[in-house]
Amino acid sequence: MSRVILFNKPFDVLSQFTDEKSPSPRPTLSAFIDVPRVYPAGRLDRDSEGLLVLTDDGRLQARIADPRNKTAKTYLAQIEGDPTNADLDPLRRGLMLKDGPTRPAVVRLIDPPPLWERDPPVRFRKSVPDRWIEITITEGRNRQVRRMTAAAGFPTLRLVRWRVGDWTLEGIAPGTWRDA
Fold this sequence. Notes:
The protein has 180 residues and is mainly β. Helix content is 12%, strand content 30%. It has helices spanning 58-65, 89-93, 144-151; strands spanning 4-9, 39-40, 49-55, 73-80, 96-97, 100-101, 106-110, 130-137, 156-164, 167-168, 177-179.
Protein backbone atom coordinates (compact mmCIF):
# COMPACT_ATOMS: atom_id res chain seq x y z
CA MET A 1 0.00 0.00 0.00
CA SER A 2 1.45 3.35 -0.99
CA ARG A 3 1.71 6.21 1.45
CA VAL A 4 0.28 9.64 0.62
CA ILE A 5 1.00 12.66 2.80
CA LEU A 6 -0.84 15.98 2.55
CA PHE A 7 1.34 18.88 3.72
CA ASN A 8 0.44 22.54 4.14
CA LYS A 9 3.62 24.18 2.85
CA PRO A 10 4.29 27.55 4.46
CA PHE A 11 5.50 30.60 2.56
CA ASP A 12 9.29 30.67 1.94
CA VAL A 13 9.76 26.88 2.23
CA LEU A 14 11.31 24.97 -0.68
CA SER A 15 9.36 22.00 -2.09
CA GLN A 16 12.33 19.68 -1.62
CA PHE A 17 14.13 18.00 1.25
CA THR A 18 17.59 19.55 0.75
CA ASP A 19 18.97 22.87 -0.40
CA GLU A 20 22.47 22.27 -1.69
CA LYS A 21 22.53 25.15 -4.19
CA SER A 22 22.24 28.04 -1.75
CA PRO A 23 25.26 29.34 0.21
CA SER A 24 22.92 30.06 3.13
CA PRO A 25 20.44 27.25 3.79
CA ARG A 26 16.78 27.97 3.15
CA PRO A 27 13.90 26.12 4.87
CA THR A 28 13.05 22.80 3.21
CA LEU A 29 10.54 19.98 3.72
CA SER A 30 13.00 18.21 6.04
CA ALA A 31 12.23 20.82 8.74
CA PHE A 32 8.60 19.62 8.76
CA ILE A 33 8.42 16.03 7.52
CA ASP A 34 10.55 13.22 8.93
CA VAL A 35 9.17 10.34 6.88
CA PRO A 36 11.58 8.22 4.85
CA ARG A 37 11.22 7.65 1.11
CA VAL A 38 8.37 10.09 0.36
CA TYR A 39 8.79 12.66 -2.37
CA PRO A 40 6.72 15.62 -3.59
CA ALA A 41 4.32 14.93 -6.45
CA GLY A 42 4.83 18.26 -8.17
CA ARG A 43 6.13 21.48 -6.73
CA LEU A 44 4.98 24.70 -5.15
CA ASP A 45 7.13 27.79 -5.56
CA ARG A 46 8.92 29.09 -2.51
CA ASP A 47 6.62 32.12 -2.40
CA SER A 48 3.44 30.03 -2.72
CA GLU A 49 1.66 28.26 0.12
CA GLY A 50 -0.67 25.37 0.56
CA LEU A 51 -1.22 21.77 -0.40
CA LEU A 52 1.78 19.69 -1.36
CA VAL A 53 1.16 15.98 -1.94
CA LEU A 54 4.01 13.62 -1.10
CA THR A 55 4.12 9.90 -1.76
CA ASP A 56 6.39 6.88 -1.80
CA ASP A 57 4.67 5.60 -4.97
CA GLY A 58 6.65 6.69 -8.04
CA ARG A 59 3.80 5.91 -10.44
CA LEU A 60 1.33 7.96 -8.41
CA GLN A 61 3.87 10.77 -8.13
CA ALA A 62 4.31 10.84 -11.92
CA ARG A 63 0.55 10.66 -12.53
CA ILE A 64 -0.10 13.69 -10.29
CA ALA A 65 2.80 15.76 -11.64
CA ASP A 66 2.51 14.96 -15.36
CA PRO A 67 0.40 17.61 -17.17
CA ARG A 68 -0.79 14.97 -19.68
CA ASN A 69 -2.91 13.46 -16.89
CA LYS A 70 -4.72 16.77 -16.37
CA THR A 71 -4.93 16.49 -12.58
CA ALA A 72 -7.00 19.48 -11.44
CA LYS A 73 -5.29 21.86 -9.02
CA THR A 74 -7.31 24.58 -7.33
CA TYR A 75 -5.71 27.75 -5.99
CA LEU A 76 -6.95 30.68 -3.94
CA ALA A 77 -5.24 33.76 -5.30
CA GLN A 78 -5.22 37.27 -3.92
CA ILE A 79 -4.78 39.47 -6.96
CA GLU A 80 -4.00 43.13 -7.44
CA GLY A 81 -6.87 45.14 -8.86
CA ASP A 82 -10.63 44.81 -8.78
CA PRO A 83 -11.63 42.71 -11.80
CA THR A 84 -15.17 42.14 -12.93
CA ASN A 85 -16.32 38.65 -13.77
CA ALA A 86 -15.86 39.50 -17.47
CA ASP A 87 -12.25 40.61 -16.81
CA LEU A 88 -11.47 36.99 -15.92
CA ASP A 89 -12.66 35.63 -19.29
CA PRO A 90 -9.13 35.50 -20.77
CA LEU A 91 -8.22 33.02 -18.02
CA ARG A 92 -11.32 30.97 -18.84
CA ARG A 93 -10.45 30.87 -22.54
CA GLY A 94 -6.74 30.21 -22.01
CA LEU A 95 -3.98 32.73 -22.60
CA MET A 96 -0.80 32.85 -24.58
CA LEU A 97 2.27 32.82 -22.33
CA LYS A 98 5.91 32.88 -23.42
CA ASP A 99 6.01 29.06 -23.31
CA GLY A 100 2.78 28.64 -25.28
CA PRO A 101 -0.98 28.70 -24.76
CA THR A 102 -2.54 27.61 -21.48
CA ARG A 103 -5.51 25.34 -21.18
CA PRO A 104 -8.71 27.10 -20.14
CA ALA A 105 -9.03 27.59 -16.38
CA VAL A 106 -12.12 27.54 -14.19
CA VAL A 107 -12.15 30.90 -12.41
CA ARG A 108 -14.52 32.72 -10.10
CA LEU A 109 -14.42 35.76 -7.85
CA ILE A 110 -14.64 34.83 -4.15
CA ASP A 111 -14.83 36.59 -0.82
CA PRO A 112 -11.55 36.69 1.13
CA PRO A 113 -11.11 33.11 2.39
CA PRO A 114 -10.61 32.40 6.12
CA LEU A 115 -6.89 31.65 5.80
CA TRP A 116 -4.08 31.91 8.31
CA GLU A 117 -1.96 35.06 8.45
CA ARG A 118 1.08 34.92 6.21
CA ASP A 119 4.53 35.66 7.61
CA PRO A 120 5.62 38.07 6.24
CA PRO A 121 2.25 39.62 5.42
CA VAL A 122 1.32 40.53 1.86
CA ARG A 123 2.13 44.16 1.12
CA PHE A 124 -0.87 46.42 1.48
CA ARG A 125 -1.39 49.62 -0.50
CA LYS A 126 -4.38 51.85 0.20
CA SER A 127 -4.44 53.15 -3.36
CA VAL A 128 -4.48 49.70 -5.02
CA PRO A 129 -7.46 47.42 -4.44
CA ASP A 130 -7.18 43.66 -4.34
CA ARG A 131 -9.60 40.74 -4.77
CA TRP A 132 -9.58 37.01 -4.27
CA ILE A 133 -10.24 34.47 -6.99
CA GLU A 134 -10.47 30.71 -7.04
CA ILE A 135 -8.72 29.29 -10.10
CA THR A 136 -8.50 25.65 -11.19
CA ILE A 137 -5.96 24.56 -13.77
CA THR A 138 -5.11 21.17 -15.24
CA GLU A 139 -1.48 21.92 -16.04
CA GLY A 140 1.42 22.68 -13.76
CA ARG A 141 3.91 24.86 -15.55
CA ASN A 142 6.47 26.89 -13.66
CA ARG A 143 4.70 29.77 -11.86
CA GLN A 144 1.72 29.25 -14.14
CA VAL A 145 -1.07 30.82 -12.07
CA ARG A 146 1.07 33.87 -11.32
CA ARG A 147 1.95 34.27 -15.00
CA MET A 148 -1.67 33.80 -16.08
CA THR A 149 -3.08 36.41 -13.68
CA ALA A 150 -0.32 38.86 -14.62
CA ALA A 151 -1.04 38.33 -18.34
CA ALA A 152 -4.71 39.11 -17.63
CA GLY A 153 -3.65 42.36 -15.92
CA PHE A 154 -4.08 41.25 -12.30
CA PRO A 155 -0.76 40.25 -10.69
CA THR A 156 -0.92 37.68 -7.89
CA LEU A 157 -0.07 38.94 -4.41
CA ARG A 158 -0.68 35.70 -2.49
CA LEU A 159 -1.17 32.19 -3.82
CA VAL A 160 -2.47 29.21 -1.83
CA ARG A 161 -2.98 25.81 -3.44
CA TRP A 162 -6.16 24.41 -1.87
CA ARG A 163 -6.82 21.23 -3.82
CA VAL A 164 -4.97 18.62 -5.87
CA GLY A 165 -7.35 16.12 -7.48
CA ASP A 166 -9.62 14.93 -4.65
CA TRP A 167 -7.26 15.97 -1.84
CA THR A 168 -7.78 19.29 -0.05
CA LEU A 169 -6.02 21.39 2.52
CA GLU A 170 -9.10 21.31 4.77
CA GLY A 171 -8.08 21.01 8.44
CA ILE A 172 -4.31 21.08 7.88
CA ALA A 173 -2.54 23.99 9.58
CA PRO A 174 0.52 25.61 7.96
CA GLY A 175 3.65 23.55 8.52
CA THR A 176 1.72 20.41 9.45
CA TRP A 177 0.80 17.27 7.55
CA ARG A 178 -1.44 14.24 7.72
CA ASP A 179 -1.77 10.95 5.92
CA ALA A 180 -4.38 10.96 3.16
